[in-house]
């Protein structure tokens, strides 16, 4: 088996679809219910904080009713058993990777179960509704907002992601449309650094042509198959 010491996995909304969490694009997608500009930009938050907070409150409280699926569980198995480097970079803001047991994980677009203070920058675990003008437990300002990276804001931990891409021997993309940068550009960065590349997605994505290998189908079937084979080959 070629040297696959360091693996970087990128996940998108498609990995949570079989758990019943709506994706963003496509029929019935989250954005179909709303214009992005109305619920996921700094301008929207300033213009209509009640609408933005309500949009994320609905998604936060809906998390209680969903469970990780076989794809999340397979990545958690990989996380526990893989002897080399592994980083799961998720664009998702749900907590399904964590609840499946993943540890080597980061959320580049933020997390529903966290509140961010726009005044002092502190993050607070947050499981309930988050009304506008909520008081920050750290600085006391009425400045708590959803801890979500809005369009036009910088994704989190980009230096850590870029360092992992530079070291990756294998870059795997699961359940993302490749529509949003910088995540959509990760496959090219990985290839530039000599990594092998694999995409697992229900349908062709905007970046499929950049991948050395693409597998079509539901993540709940493809990801466990991939993980089992990888761990078996690693011996
Ligand atoms: N298994 C695998 N892939 C699936 C499944 C499934 N069961 N169901 C859907 N998909 C695929 C779709 O074919 C689509 O390509 O998942 C992808 C989901 O794409 P999007 O809805 O665009 O979600 P994502 O790529 O995560 O969006 C990226 O855009 O709106 C912003 O911040 C938001 O993080 C999000 C980012």
UniProtKB/TrEMBL annotation:
Its EC number is 2.3.1.286. Residues 1-233 form the Deacetylase sirtuin-type domain. Substrate binds at residues 56, 59. NAD(+) binds at residues 12-31, 91-94, 175-177, 201-203, 219. One of its GO terms (cellular component) is cytoplasm. InterPro entries: DHS-like_NAD/FAD-binding_dom (IPR029035), NAD-dep_sirtuin_deacylases (IPR050134), Sirtuin (IPR003000), Sirtuin_cat_small_dom_sf (IPR026591), Sirtuin_class_III (IPR027546), Ssirtuin_cat_dom (IPR026590). Binds 1 zinc ion per subunit. The active site is at residue 109. It is found in: Cytoplasm. It is an enzyme of class 2 (transferase). SUPFAM superfamilies: DHS-like NAD/FAD-binding domain. Keywords: Cytoplasm, Metal-binding, NAD, Transferase, Zinc. One of its GO terms (molecular function) is protein-malonyllysine demalonylase activity. The keyword Transport does not apply. Zn(2+) binds at residues 117, 120, 136, 139. Its main location: cytoplasm. Its cofactor is Zn(2+). It comes from the Bacteria. Pfam families: SIR2. It catalyses: N(6)-succinyl-L-lysyl-[protein] + NAD(+) + H2O = 2''-O-succinyl-ADP-D-ribose + nicotinamide + L-lysyl-[protein]; N(6)-acetyl-L-lysyl-[protein] + NAD(+) + H2O = 2''-O-acetyl-ADP-D-ribose + nicotinamide + L-lysyl-[protein]. PANTHER family: NAD-DEPENDENT PROTEIN DEACYLASE, NAD-DEPENDENT PROTEIN DEACYLASE SIRTUIN-5, MITOCHONDRIAL-RELATED. Belongs to the sirtuin family. Class III subfamily. NAD-dependent lysine deacetylase and desuccinylase that specifically removes acetyl and succinyl groups on target proteins. Modulates the activities of several proteins which are inactive in their acylated form. 2 residues (Tyr-56 and Arg-59) present in a large hydrophobic pocket are probably involved in substrate specificity. They are important for desuccinylation activity, but dispensable for deacetylation activity. This is NAD-dependent protein deacylase. It comes from Sphingomonas pokkalii. The lineage of its organism: Bacteria, Pseudomonadati, Pseudomonadota, Alphaproteobacteria, Sphingomonadales.
């Amino acid at each position: 088996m070629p040297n696959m010491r360091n693996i970087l996995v990128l996940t998108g909304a498609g990995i949570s679809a079989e758990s019943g969490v709506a994706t963003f694009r496509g029929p019935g997608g989250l954005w179909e219910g709303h214009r992005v500009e109305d619920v996921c930009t700094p301008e929207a938050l300033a213009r209509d904080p009640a609408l933005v907070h309500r949009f994320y409150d609905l998604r936060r409280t809906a998390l209680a009713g969903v469970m990780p699926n076989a794809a999340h569980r397979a990545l958690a198995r990989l996380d526990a058993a893989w002897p080399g480097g592994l980083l799961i970079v998720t664009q998702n803001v749900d907590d399904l990777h964590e609840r499946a047991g993943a540890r080597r994980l980061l959320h580049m677009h933020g997390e529903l179960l966290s509140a961010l203070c726009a005044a002092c920058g502190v993050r607070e675990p947050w499981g309930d509704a988050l009304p506008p003008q909520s008081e920050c437990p750290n600085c006391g300002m009425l400045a708590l907002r959803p801890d979500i990276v809005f369009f036009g804001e910088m994704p989190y931990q980009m230096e850590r992601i870029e360092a992992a891409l530079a070291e990756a021997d294998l870059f795997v993309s699961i359940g993302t449309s490749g529509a949003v940068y910088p995540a959509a550009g990760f496959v090219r960065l990985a290839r530039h650094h000599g990594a092998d590349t694999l995409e697992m997605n229900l349908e062709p994505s905007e970046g499929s042509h950049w991948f050395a290998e693409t597998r079509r189908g539901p993540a709940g079937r493809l990801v466990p198959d991939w993980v089992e084979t990888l761990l078996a080959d690693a011996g």
